[in-house]
Give the backbone structure.
Amino acid sequence: MSRNNGRNTIRVATWNVNGIRARLATVSEWLRDTAPDVVCLQEIKTEEKNFPAEAFEDLGYNLAIHGQKGFNGVAILSRLPIDEIRRGLPTWPDEEQARYIEAVVSTETGALRVASVYAPNGNPVNTEKFDYKLRWLEAFHAHAADLLKLEERFALGGDYNIIPTPRDAKNPEEWEGDALFSPQARAAWRKLINLGLVDAALACKGDPRQFTFWDYKGGAWQKNDGIRIDFVLLSPQAADAMVDAGTDKRVRAWEKPSDHVPLLVELDPRHQGMFTQPPFSAAAAGGK
């Protein structure tokens, strides 16, 4: 296990990289700089055979990959040993779209189950794509419910393609009629949270305006015209171990960035109460 800031903790990150080969230099630099223990990647946009595995293995990561040519694709990078890899949702028969990978990582205090999630976008509304989104979310809900029955520590990190509330967007009116902000998608989110999952960043900070996505168009980044669609959902057992959570926005201003930024959650399995550490910052992550 890596030690961060003198604490024997586990950092779990999620990041939609928008093409791992296009973003390899950026992702590698961020990993060297921040050194998370487990990283859930989405939109890797490549098959496993073309994934740049060696670059991450050289940084000390074990890999679990569920790829797809040119679209979608998810992966888990872990400095900890990986076991029990599951590719795809057990409750979802569609094997053509690589949107979910799950694994168990071994820590000094027991197992931690992690998953990388890339939910469908669903646009435009009132099309088969939207229906697919809702059916996929229902299948994901069923699997999350099954995981909760195990009563173990787990973290489901990913791009959920849902804007849960108007406060999760700088300009929510711009998203009216979009699948991400549709009443059906928001209802699916509430149903998911009502299972007993914990939205790590919101629970830790109490502030929904921790945007994770800024469009490349219209100067969205410069205007901070962002939305929050990337989340780490924790089981109650994992939430009890959380000491910190937050985004690392620095990378959105780097050269050739993804339109998403990483979200990090720090867990201390020895910890018995939530949110006692200072707020997450780039400096705490080893940033500048």
User: Anything to note?
Assistant: The longest strand covers residues 110-118. The two ends are 24 Å apart (CA to CA). The chain has one domain: 10-267. DSSP finds six helices and twelve strands in the chain.
